[in-house]
Amino acid sequence: MSDYSLEKHNLAANTIRGLAMDGVQAANSGHPGMPMGMADVATVLWSQFLKHNPADPTWPDRDRFVLSAGHGSMLLYSLLHLSGYDLPLDELKHFRQWGSKTPGHPEYGHTVGVETTTGPLGQGITVAAGMALAERWLAARFNRPDFEIVDHYTYVIASDGDLMEGISHESSSLAGHLGLGKLIVFYDDNEISIDGSTDISFTEDVMARYAAYGWHTQSIDGHDPLAIIAATEAAQAETERPSIIACHTTIGFGSPNQAGTSGVHGSPLGEEEVRLTKLNLGIPLEPTFFVPAGVKAFMAGDSGAQEEWQALWREYQEALPDLAVAFDDGLAGKIPTNWDDILPTFEPPKKIATRNASGQVLNAIARHMPNLIGGSADLTPSNKTDLKGEEDIQKGNYDGRYIRFGVREHAMGGMLNGLAQHGGIRPYGGTFLIFSDYMRGSIRLAALSGAPVIYVFTHDSIGVGEDGPTHQPVEQVMSLRTIPNLTVIRPADATETAVAWRCAIENTTGPTALILTRQNLITNNKSSADAARGGYILHDHPNPKAILIASGSEVEIMEKAAAQLGFEGILARVVSMPSWELFAAQSQAYRDSVLPPHLTARVSLEAGVTLGWERYVGSQGIAIGIDHFGASAPYATVYKEFGLTAEAVAAAVHLLLD
Amino acid sequence: MSDYSLEKHNLAANTIRGLAMDGVQAANSGHPGMPMGMADVATVLWSQFLKHNPADPTWPDRDRFVLSAGHGSMLLYSLLHLSGYDLPLDELKHFRQWGSKTPGHPEYGHTVGVETTTGPLGQGITVAAGMALAERWLAARFNRPDFEIVDHYTYVIASDGDLMEGISHESSSLAGHLGLGKLIVFYDDNEISIDGSTDISFTEDVMARYAAYGWHTQSIDGHDPLAIIAATEAAQAETERPSIIACHTTIGFGSPNQAGTSGVHGSPLGEEEVRLTKLNLGIPLEPTFFVPAGVKAFMAGDSGAQEEWQALWREYQEALPDLAVAFDDGLAGKIPTNWDDILPTFEPPKKIATRNASGQVLNAIARHMPNLIGGSADLTPSNKTDLKGEEDIQKGNYDGRYIRFGVREHAMGGMLNGLAQHGGIRPYGGTFLIFSDYMRGSIRLAALSGAPVIYVFTHDSIGVGEDGPTHQPVEQVMSLRTIPNLTVIRPADATETAVAWRCAIENTTGPTALILTRQNLITNNKSSADAARGGYILHDHPNPKAILIASGSEVEIMEKAAAQLGFEGILARVVSMPSWELFAAQSQAYRDSVLPPHLTARVSLEAGVTLGWERYVGSQGIAIGIDHFGASAPYATVYKEFGLTAEAVAAAVHLLLD
Questions:
Q1: Does the structure's ipTM exceed the value 0.85?
Q2: pLDDT digits (tens, 9 = 90+) for A433-465
Q3: Going from the N-terminus, what domains does chain A have, and what CATH number goes with each?
Q4: Prior bond of B287 cis (ω within 30°)
Q5: Which residues of A carry out catalysis?
Q6: Known active-site residue B115
Q7: Closest Cα in chain A, distance from residue B616 (Å)
C-alpha cells in the first residue's frame, strides 16, 4: 500500500465529512461529530481493506463491518453510497425522514449493506463478537485444505460510549477468551462524550484493560492514513487474539469552532459552521451533498474477491458436494420439516419439568439441524441447554457446538444476534428467566431487527421456590410480552414444550422466548399440537358455564379446579394459552371458538402479574396472579401462601356465577 | 494483630463452614461452596476489622459489608448470628423456609444487618460503590477538623460471577475514576462457576483489568489468615484508590470429595459428605448447627467504636448544631413539606417539554433539599438533570452534588440503590427511557428492597422522532408498570410534572420512574394537583357519553379529540392518567367517580403498546397505541403515520357509540 494516494484519501474523507454535515444539517438532527472524526479511519478501511462486493451484499464470505457507534449513521450511509451499494444520494438527502433508507440509526434489513442494527451503545461490538465467532465456527466446520471458503474479518468502529457499557466489557472479555483473531475494533478515542470531556467519567486505561482481556492493542493517530494502514495490517497479522486500535481523533474534525467539543457530538453544526468547515476542508460550498469526481472510484467495492471466491466455491461444490449443500442450507436458514420423526413424545401422566423436556427436545432437534448451536450464561446444568456428545466451542476448537458464555447474559444476547445475523447459524441461549432483565437491550434489538434467536428461559416463576424473590420472576413473562415481534411461549407440559420448540425453530423472522419451569409438571394426556395456535381448548364440556385460562405450570392447577367445579356440577372449559402472540395471530373465528364472546365468566391463572390479563378475562372476569414480589420457601408452600390454588380458582368461578 | 489467634480463627471459620453445610442440608437447597471457601476471609474481616455494633445495626458510621455473591447467604447469616445480631440460631435452622429471616438470598429490610439485597450477580459490588460514594459525600459535607463523624469502609465479597457481569465492570471503572479509596473488595477467586472451571469462559487477567481501572490490587492465599490481615491493612492504607484483593480459595473447603468442584457450588453436599467434611475439619457430628464455646466471643461485634463515635457526635451537636440537624435530617429521610413555596408554577398555555419542566422542578426542590443528589448516564443536556450552580462530584471534590455516571446505565441504577441504602442521601438518575432496559436489573432490586430512588427517564415515546426505532420506547412504559412497588408517572404537562416530582419525593418506600417527553407540550389550564391521585377528570360535561383516557403527551391529543367530538355534539370526558400505581391506590369510590362502571364507551390513547389498557377501557372499549416498533422521522410525522391522532380517537368513539 506504499502507493496509497494521500490526495485521493483526503478527498474521500472530506467528502464523507461533507455528506455527514449536510445530512445532519438537512435533517436538523443527528450526530455529525463522529463521522467527521472517524472519516479517515473509515476511508482507509473501506478503500484499502474491506473485502466486499456492493453488487452482492449477501456474499457469505464478505468482511463484516459493524458501526457500533450507530449514532454516527451518516458515516455508514456515506460509505455505502460511495462504495457502490444501492443507496442513492437522494436517500442521504432524506436522512432521518419518513420512508427513507437512512434512518437515525442503522437498521438491519432496512438499508442494504447494514449488517446489524446499532445505536444502543455496546450492542454493535457485541454483535460483532458473535459474527466473528460465527466465522470461526463456519470455518472450522466447512473449510478443508485448499478450500478456505470461510475466511473473513469482522471490523467494528466503536466509541467511548460503546466501551463504557457493561455489555461490551462482557463480550470483549469473552472474545479475548475465545481468541477471535479476526475481530478488529477501531476505537474512536476522541475523549468526548455528550456530557463533555471523558475526563469527567472515563479515565481508565482502556488499552490496558483490553490487554487484560487478552486482546492485541495498538494506539495510533486516527487522522494519519499510513498509521491506520499499518495498524490494520498489524491487527490482521495477529491471528490468535482480537485486536483493538485506539484511534486518537478529533470529534467534528475540520470544524473551526466546534471540533473537539461535545457540542458537535449530537447536534447539527449550523449553517454558518458548516460553511466555515467546508471552507476549511476545501469542500465546495455548493452543491450540498457534493461528491467530487474520482471519490466513488477510490472507494468502490471490488467484485474481484468475490469472483475468486466463486471459482473456489464451484470447485468446492464438486469436490465436497455434501458439505456444500450443508453450507448452503445453513445460509438459507433451512429448517427441518419431518417434525414427527424428530420430536420426542412424552407419556402422560409422567411428571417432568419443562426445562428437562426442553433439554430432550433440543437435543432431538439438534441431531437433525447441524447449524443449531448455543449455550448458557453459566447455568448449563439448570437450563438443560447442553448438547449431548458435542464439544464446547473454545479457542483452538471452534468446531464444537456449545458456547460457554460465562455469567454474561447481556453479551450472550448480543452475540446471539451476531451469530444469527452473520448467516449460516441458528443460535440459542439459556439463562434463568429472571435474568432476561439483564439482556433486555439485546432481546429488543433481536425483535427490532428480526433476528431468529431462541432464548431458553428456565426457572420461570415462584416455582423457583427456595431461591426467593431475587430469583423468582413475577413480572418478566408479561414484560417480555410487551416487546413487539418477540414470541413468548410458556408451555404447560412436556408435550407443549416440544410444540414450543418447533414453533421457535419455525419462527425465522424474529426471536422466540421459551419460558420453562424448574419444577416437575404432569404430562397432560390432552396436550396437543394445537399449542402452536397459542391458545386452545384443553378440556371441555357441552355448554360450559365458565372458562379457565392459564399458561405454563398453572394449567395443571386449572385442571384440578375444573375437576373440582365439575364435582360441584359446574362445567368449566380449560384453555391452555402458552403464547399470546401465536394466539393473536389466529383468525377471529378461531379465537372466538376458544373464547366465545358470550362466555364472560372467565378466570385466568398465571404465577405472575395480572396486568394485561384483562385482555382475555374481560371486564367481568377475574385474573388471579401475583402482583407483588415472591418469597423464599419450597415452591408448593409459596403457591399455597400466595393463593395460586385450584380452590381459589373455584371460588372465583363461584363469585362470577353467583 | 500479631497476637491473632489462629486457633480461635480456625474454630470460628470451621463453625461457619458447619453452619453453612447444615443450613443448606436442612433446606436441601442452597450454595454451601462459597461460604466454606470464603470462611477464612470473612472470619478475619468480621473479627478483626469490621467496625459495627450488632446491638445498633443502624449506627450511621458503621462499616458497610456487602455480600455481592448473595447465593452464599449462609455465610452472611452465620456472621450475623455469631457476631451478635438479632438472628437466632433457629432462624439459621429454617434457612430458605416460609416466614424465616434467612431467605435464599439476603434481603434488605427483611433481615437485620443485611445492608442490601443481593443475589443477581454484579449488583452488590455496584451498590457498594454507591455506598462508598455516599460515605465520601457525607464526609465532605459534614466532617470538620477534629470532627470525623463520617469515616467508614465499605467491604465487599464478590465472586467470579460478580466480576463477569457487565454492571460490575461499569461500576468498577467508575469507582476507580472517582478514587473511592475506602471501598475494599475481597474477590473469591476460586476458579469455579456453575458450569465448571472458570477456564472454560473466564480467563482474562482480572487483577490487570482492575489496575487498568485505577484500582489497588493484591493477590493472596484466601485461606491464610495472616495474609488476609496484611492485605486488608494494605488496602486500608491505600486511600486514593479502591482496593481489590484476589483471594485464592478452594470452593467447598474441607469437603474431602467435593472441594474445588462445581458440584459444591449450588447443591447440598449430601448427608454423607457433610459427615466426612465435619470429620475432616474437626467439627463434632452432633448436634448440627454447632457453635463451640468461645466462637461468639471471638466474632462478637464491639460497641466500643460506636461509643467513641457517640461521644464525638455529642460534641459535634454542640459545636455544629446546624450541621448536626442537617445530618440527622438526611439520615431520617426528611423531606420538604412546604410544597407550595417550593414548586414552580407554569403558565398555560405555554409549551414546554416535560423534561424541561422537570429540570426546573428538580432544581427548585434541590434548593430546599440539600441531600438530593444525582446525575445522568452521559445525557445531562438531554435529561435536564443538572443542578444549576452545583459542582460535579469528582475525585478530590466529593462535596459537589452532580454525578457523571458516564454511559453506564446499569451501574447508575445499582449505585443509586447504594446511595439510597447507605442512608443520608436521596438520589436520582437520568437517562433516555429506552435505556431503562439496560438498568432493569437494578430497578427491580430498588423495587424489591424499597429503595426510594428517582429515575428521570426522558425521550419517552415516538416523540423522540428522528432518532428512530432504536431510541423510541414503545414497550418500556407498560413494561415498567409490570414491576411491583415501582411507581411510574408520566405527566401530561409541566403542571403535572411538578406534581410528579412531589409524588416521587414523597414516595419513600420504593423507587419512582418519571417518564418525560423530549417534545414540547401545551401547559393545560385544567391540570392540577389531582394528578397525584394517578388519574383524574381533566375536562368534563354533565352526563358524558364517552371517556377518553390518556397519559403524558397524548393527553393533549385527547383534548383535541374531545373538542372535535364536542363540535359534533358528543360530550366526552377526558381523564388524564399519569400513574396507574397511584390511581390503583385510590378508593374504589374515587376510581368509580373518574371511570364510572356504566360508562363503557372508553377510548385510551398512549404512544406505546396497548397491552394492559384493557384494564381501563374494558372489554367494550378501544385502546389506541403502537403495537410495533417506531420509525425515524420528525415526531409529528410519526404520530400521524401511526394513527395517534385526535381524528382516530374521534372515529373510535363513533364506532363505540354507533
A1: yes
A2: 999 999 999 999 999 999 999 999 999 999 999
A3: 6-299 (3.40.50.970), 339-522 (3.40.50.970), 531-657 (3.40.50.920)
A4: yes
A5: 409
A6: no
A7: 9
